[in-house]
Each structure stands twice: as structure tokens, then as C-alpha cells.
């Protein structure tokens, strides 16, 4: 795919300085760009690179003043970062634009497939599945009985969705992620063995959710495990049965949420965090990486850290003293010696 | 699937109060049940919901006394929770009842497949594999050369089992789990590079084991990585080469066990726990979530917590003081000041 | 596969004591070996087993002196461990030797496949993919548009490689691992929602890298996430966008590296370690399991531990005092009492 400076200026509604016919075929950061690349300058910290970059085209802010001449063709716009982001998105859409049904696939005759859908080879679609319009279902995806998938949703290769789960519109799920596997529920018996508790609920994923690769969301025992609208989950996350994650909450990689816990809206959870079961986390909570949350957080909008998690500032203060513990012990011993000496000298 | 109150009363051997012809088609918790649902009441805490629920049928304990009339049809049994659990299981078995071999599949001519087996489309079964009766092998499963699988075992979509591994009877393995990948063994060389140590052992999974989604169990360098009878492993767990996990031990999500470690029987390991290699964990040990166990636990039946893991009660006491560390330091400083003043005033 | 003692002695260039015609068909540790097994003795600690083992053949060091007669046929070599390792490798190569293209597969007509390649059934190879000679691509592998794979590389079942990624020579990637999924990048909006930032970079994996099962390496936002030559990654690891991991660095299972962080060469990272984004880790750093690294490590070759990570020795000293915190508090209270009594007695 090749574009001229003129075409790009039109696309971003910008004004052009330099050669309108120069062609680009890739996007790159200004400090790494080679000839044939389109780049952008937004952060003034990087302005130096404008005079050394090999980029054929650079998108810059309207009001940028040049210290010396530049080799690249410039396109001036109101907000260079936004314009470039928009081009990234256009580029990605073109790269990933696929439609049609490849062969072989397994599609149960009762499944209903919408318009303008891509279904990759070796994908399996079971009984009574509904896939709405403009979905992209990549190769090796498994979609169990009675699953419903809304418009414009993308499932990348190797995603598995167990029966009865519901996925909204504009959802993106990356490779290897499992939706609707059995919750971890076992009843201990007198002889030390465990009986499996059947997990007959489902998973509901609302609109505009994105889920990373190799994440697992277990189905509810009864009822639903629910991922609310706009939630963003990273890779390798564990979401246990009957969990609910509130609107626009973001969770980083390798975190785990135990059964029946409810996380509020607009919370931010760092990587490798563990949250115990049957508690609630208030809206807007910010939980630092590697924290272990072991009780309900009722106050919204607070920052937490550590395992067990404590208010961030208190945790930081304890942490600082922790690093001085050997010194603290020594000072305590000195006081003890001092007092002992006094006692003895009496 | 629809059932009448009469049919269900017969199934659970209960006595019926109300309309024997009312039909249900789903199972639900009493506080969430809609018309057409079957529910149950076991915990007295939820008794209030009996008078407001829209459930068409509620299973209750034999001796329940009604405070006022109820709309739902009641089925009285000795133990409402057990009766409902049994119905859950029956329901799930009916939902997941599949047999036959779909198309296309890859089955090597030397593989032996038992009676009444389900093999989903796009599943791959290599040379000399044996799959016994009543197994369910979902789509996209990979079963390598010479793998043996016992009766009544279920492999959900996308499970991979490398060559020579052995899986027992009534085992359940969820999507994306990998059995028998190479252990992480490398010999450091003088030039800073590493030579791979070939991993030629296997994995043995005994009867009645359940393994969650996207878990990994590495094959032994030589000999076997062994998961003993009745073990339950959650999602995203790491089991390294030559590990042995004892009978009826339960391990929660995202925990990792390093190479050659032996975990005893009836242990309970929380989520995100790390256990170093080449140690043993005594029978019945209880290891709290996010613990890091770095040495052998010889005493059976004890509770451990923290990283490095320590006896639970000691850990809790240290934790409490940790949260007061800034105060402790301040008190120490006050004492120092006090003594300094005294010294000076002498 | 069966081999005689004579054949093996020839293979390892050893001298034979005992029956040259005895046959073996498996490899085993000396303390577990049955008749028909080949074993080795290298560590003097295991010498006792030489007199009780049922192994048909044992490879021993040239200078081993026997205390009493042995039943096994012995093969004497310069270095028993090296000779046995070499046999392991030969055995494994023979076990895993596959070539040819199975059916059905999906191979785009523009893809170029080298000589002597194995491609398993149900594997998907998209437009403009290049796979060089002697590669083994197992079943259920997904290789996206324009991916390049060097000679002698093995992708185990269910690996997914997104478009534009580049994989070197002699690379091994285990089942379920995802290469090139989108980095976790979202721009917060004023209404609390997030806009996805398109991730148009790729992943570059250099020669001689091995990656475990169910690991995830995200593509760069722009540019490349880079795994340098000789790196060894274990299972269930998270590598975020734009990370770079230096030559011959080894990372154990379930560790996570956040966006844009650069890890140096010959570093060793334990299991369940978390490393924050946008920092550097010096060459040769050794990071203990479960550490949390939250700032740049500039000094090379040092050992780190804890969360937040601190120099290993300091961390160990603080840890020891931590376990005595309740005692420390009690001693502090005693001093306070003592001083209070004194004050009052004045």
C-alpha cells in the first residue's frame, strides 16, 4: 500500500509544505523513520529529530516554527498526534480488512451468520449460534452452542467461547483467550475427595470491551459472569465465576479476580494483582501492580498498594521503614544496652 | 428442554405442593429467578425470597414451615441443596451430551478409538493414540503420538497433549491447556549461551483430575511429571518438569510450581502462589494466596502465608506490626531523644 | 526403536564391558531404570544405584572403579553426562522427525514454503508468509500475513503468530503461545471511556530463542518488540509492547514485563517477577522469583529481590528482621515502660 503526500494531506485535512508527490508505504516514529516512512511530531522534546529524520513525510502541528530547513515533506494540521492516530487506525483497518468464509469451516446449519462477516478456515460454529454483521472470526476459533455475538466484533485466532455465552458489539478478543470455561467449584467430601459443582451459568461481555491474549473468563455457577461496557482486560488475566467488572475498568496483565467479587466502574488495576473472592471494589479505585486485595474497598477513587493491600501513602511509608529495618533493630539494641548499663551502674 | 413439576418431583423423589403441570426450562438462584425457572431454598437467610420470587418451581427442605402463601409450586425433599445439585448435574450432562465423529478430523490409522466417543471437527489424533470409551474430545484438540486417554474423559476445545503422555479416567481438561510441553531445562555454556537439555519424559494424569483453562504442565526431563488422583487445578497454572502433585490436592489460579517439587496429598494452595523447585510440601498443607514457598514444609496440616512463606499466625503478627512501622520508628526516635536529653542534662 | 549395547558404544565412542547384544528401548534415571533401559552414572552420590539398578546398559565415566560386580552392561566414556545428553538429543530428534504437508491445511497461494518442511493438518498460513527450510509447523498453528520464519524453526500445536512478525532460525515455540497480539494501549477520554491506540508494529524473534507454552508477546505500537538471540522464555510469560529482551537472557514462568522496558543481556529473571514499564535492566542482572522491579537497574551483574526489588543482601537482612517484628515491638514497649517508670519515680 502506497500513498502520496497529497493523498495524506487530503485525508487529514492538512496543508502541505514540500513535495506533494513523495510516496510513503509505512508508519514510523520520527527518531527511527527511514525513507518511505510517514511520521509525526507532537511532543516538543522530539523536535530535534525533525532536522535529522529520514522520514519522507512528517505531520506537524499548525503552529510549529522551523529553526532550519527540513528535508521531509511537512503536513501541518491542528493536532499532529490526533491526525497520526487517525491514520494508524485507517492503516490498521485496511491491513485487517477481510470478509468471506474460508474453507474448510464447520458451521452448524442452525447457526445464523450476518452480513459482511469474515470466518477463517478451521473455525467451528455450533448449533444455534448467532453472529451479527461485520464480525471478523479468525481461524481456529471455537464458538459453542447458543453463543450470541453482536455487530462489528473481532475474535482473533484460537479464541474459545463455551456454550450460552453472550458477546456484545465492537468487542475485540485476542488469540488463545477462553470465555465460559467452568468455574472452579468443588464440594469437599468426608473421604478427602471433591465433587464437582456443575457450572451452568454463562459469561456476558458487553459492548466495546477489549480482551488480550490467553486470558480466561469462567462461566458463572448460576447466573452470569459479567464484563461491563468499555472494560479493557490485558493478557493472561484470570476472571473467576460470578465476577462482575464495572464499566470502563482497566486491568493489566496477569491479574486474577476470585469468585463472586464485584469491581466497580472506572477502576484501574495494575499487573499481577490478586483480588480475593466475595468482596467489592469501589468505583475509580486504583490498585498498584502486585497488590493483594483481601477485603472490600468501600471508598471510591482511592489508591491501594501492597499485599495485603493498604492505602497507597501508608504503604509507601511502611515500605520505606521496611528497608531500614536492620538499622532500626540496631538502634533499639543500642538503647537497650544504654539502659542496661545504667541499671548496672546504679 | 422443558420439564414439568411432576417430572422433577419424580426425579428428585420429592412431594409436590401446587400445580404439577407448570413447566420450567431453566435453573436460577431464588433471588434472580424469573417465571419458567426452577430454583431452590436451602440457606434460611434466603427464606424471604420464597415469598417474592417469580420462580415457577422451588425445591425446599422437607421440614420448611411457610409463614404465608407462596405463588411457586414447591417440591419438598430431604436436602434441597443436594437435590438441586443433582438436577444441575443432570441438566449439564444433557446439555453437553455429544457423540460421533465430526468432519473434518485427522485420525492416524493406527489410533484406537473406543465406543460412544465424541470427536469434534479439526481435532488431530496422531499415531498409536488410544482413546477409551465415552470420551468427549472437542474441536481443535491436538493429541500427540502414543498418548493414552482413559474412559469418560473430556478434553475441551484447543487442548494440546504432547506425545507419550497418559491421561486417566473421568479427567476433565479445559480449553487451551497444554500437557507435556518441554520442561525449562538449559545448560549454561562458557560463552554465555545455553544448550537445550532434551526433555524426553512425559506427564501422567491420574483418574478424576480436573484442570482449568490455559494451564501448562511440562513433561519430565526423564521419568514423569505426575498429577495424582482427584487433584483439581484451576486456570493459568504452571506445573514444571518432574513435579508431583499428591492425591486430592487443590490449587487455585495462576499459581506456579517449579521443577522437581513434590506436593503432598489433600493440600490446598491459593491463587498466585509460587513454590520453588526441588522441595516437598507436606500433606494437608494450606498455603495462602500470593505466598512464596522457598523451602520444604515437613509438618503436615499447617497453614502458611507470605513471601517468603511463614507459619500463618506468625505472618499475621508481623503483618500487623508492618502496617505500624512508621509509628514504631517515631516511638524509637522519641526514646532516643529522651535518652539523649538525659545524657546532656547530666 | 531398539538399540544394542554395541550400537550405542559406537555412537558415543565408548568401550564396552558386558553383553554387547543386550537391547534397550528407553532412557531412564539410574534409580528408576527397568530392564530394557539405558541409563548413566555421573554424580558419585548415585554410585550406590549402579549395584541395584535393573538398567540393561549404564554409561559411566572412564575412570569409575567398581566395588563389586554389576549386572548391567557398562559403556565407559570420557564424560558420562555429556554422552547421555547427546543420546537424549539423538533420541528426541528421531522421535520428533516429521516432514511433509498433511491434509487439510490452509496455505495461501502467495506463501513460500522451504524444503524438508513439516506442516501439520489444520494449520493456517496466510498471504506472503515465508517459511524457510527444515521447519516443523505442527497442527493448529496460525501464521498471519507477511510473517517470515527462518530455517530449522519449530512451532508446536496451536501457536498463533500475527501479521508482519519475524521469527529467526532454530527457534522453538511451544503450544498456545501468542506472538504479535495488540499491545495494551488506550487513550483515556473525558467521559471515562478509552479509545484504542492502533498497534501497527511487530515482534522480532532472533535466532536460537526458545519460548514456552501459553506465553504472550505483544506487537509494538510502532517499531518492534524484540527478543534477541539465544533468549529463553518459560511458560505463561507476559511481554508487553515495545519491550526488548537482550541476548541470552533467561526468564522463568509467569513473569511479566511491562511496555517499553529494556532488559539487558545474560540476565536471569525468576518466576512470577513483575517489571514495570519504561525502565532498563542492566546486563547480567539476577532477579529473584516474585520480585517487583519498579525502577531502572543501572549496575550490571547484581542480585535483586523483593517487591519493590532491592539489592539481595539488604532485602535478606530486612526480611529477617520482618519475621521478628512482633518481638521488636515488644522490646520497644519494654523500654518505654522502663523509661516511664523512671520518669514517674523521679
Descriptive overview:
Three copies of one chain form a homotrimer. With 346 residues, chain A is of the alpha/beta class. The first copy, chain A, folds into three domains: 3-95, Udp-n-acetylmuramoylalanyl-d-glutamate--2,6- Diaminopimelate Ligase, Chain: A, domain 1 (3-Layer(aba) Sandwich), CATH 3.40.1390; 100-315, UDP N-Acetylglucosamine Acyltransferase, domain 1, CATH 2.160.10.10; 316-345. Chain A is 16% helix and 29% strand. Chain A has four helices and 40 strands. In chain A, the strands form six sheets. A twelve-stranded mixed beta sheet of chain A has the order 8-11-14-17-20-25-28-31-34-37-39-40, with helices on one face. In chain A, strands 9-12-15-18-21-26-29-32-35-38 form a ten-stranded parallel beta sheet, with no helix packed on it. Chain A has a nine-stranded parallel beta sheet with strand order 10-13-16-19-24-27-30-33-36, with no helix packed on it. In chain A, a hairpin with a 4-residue loop joins strand 39 (303-305) and strand 40 (310-311). Chain A starts with a strand and ends with a helix. Chains A and B meet through helix 3 and helix 4 of A and helix 2, helix 3 and helix 4 of B.
Amino acid at each position: 500500500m502506497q500513498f502520496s503526500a497529497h493523498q495524506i494531506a487530503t485525508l487529514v485535512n492538512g496543508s502541505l509544505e514540500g513535495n506533494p508527490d513523495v510516496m510513503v508505504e509505512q508508519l514510523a516514529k520520527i527518531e527511527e523513520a527511514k525513507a518511505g516512512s510517514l511520521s509525526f511530531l507532537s511532543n516538543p522534546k522530539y523536535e530535534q529529530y525533525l532536522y535529522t529524520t529520514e522520514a519522507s513525510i512528517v505531520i506537524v502541528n499548525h503552529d510549529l516554527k522551523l529553526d532550519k530547513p527540513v528535508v521531509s515533506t511537512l503536513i501541518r494540521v491542528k493536532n499532529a498526534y490526533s491526525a497520526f492516530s487517525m491514520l494508524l487506525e485507517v492503516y490498521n483497518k485496511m491491513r485487517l480488512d477481510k470478509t468471506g468464509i474460508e474453507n474448510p469451516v464447520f458451521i452448524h446449519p442452525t447457526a445464523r451468520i450476518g452480513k459482511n462477516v469474515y470466518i477463517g478456515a478451521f473455525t467451528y460454529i455450533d448449533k444455534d449460534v448467532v453472529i451479527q454483521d461485520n464480525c471478523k472470526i479468525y481461524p481456529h476459533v471455537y464458538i459453542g452452542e447458543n453463543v450470541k455475538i453482536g455487530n462489528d466484533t473481532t475474535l482473533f485466532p484460537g479464541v474459545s467461547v463455551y456454550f450460552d455465552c453472550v458477546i456484545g458489539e465492537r468487542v475485540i478478543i485476542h488469540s488463545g483467550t477462553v470465555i465460559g470455561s467452568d468455574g472452579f467449584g468443588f464440594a469437599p467430601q468426608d473421604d478427602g475427595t471433591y465433587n464437582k459443582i456443575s457450572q451452568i451459568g454463562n459469561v456476558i461481555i458487553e459492548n466495546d470491551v477489549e480482551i488480550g491474549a490467553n486470558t480466561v473468563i469462567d462461566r458463572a455457577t448460576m447466573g452470569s459472569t459479567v464484563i461491563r461496557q468499555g472494560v479493557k482486560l490485558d493478557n493472561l488475566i484470570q476472571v473467576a465465576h460470578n465476577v462482575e467488572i464495572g464499566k470502563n475498568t482497566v486491568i493489566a496483565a496477569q491479574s486474577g479476580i476470585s469468585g463472586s467479587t464485584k469491581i466497580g466502574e472506572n477502576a484501574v488495576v495494575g499487573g499481577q494483582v490478586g483480588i480475593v473472592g466475595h468482596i467489592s471494589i469501589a468505583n475509580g479505585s486504583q490498585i498498584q501492580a502486585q497488590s493483594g486485595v483481601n477485603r472490600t474497598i468501600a471508598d471510591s477513587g482511592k489508591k491501594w498498594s501492597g499485599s495485603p493491600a493498604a492505602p497507597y501513602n501508608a504503604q509507601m511509608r511502611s515500605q520505606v521503614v521496611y528497608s531500614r529495618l536492620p538499622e532500626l533493630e540496631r538502634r533499639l539494641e543500642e538503647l537497650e544496652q544504654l539502659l542496661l548499663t545504667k541499671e548496672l551502674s546504679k
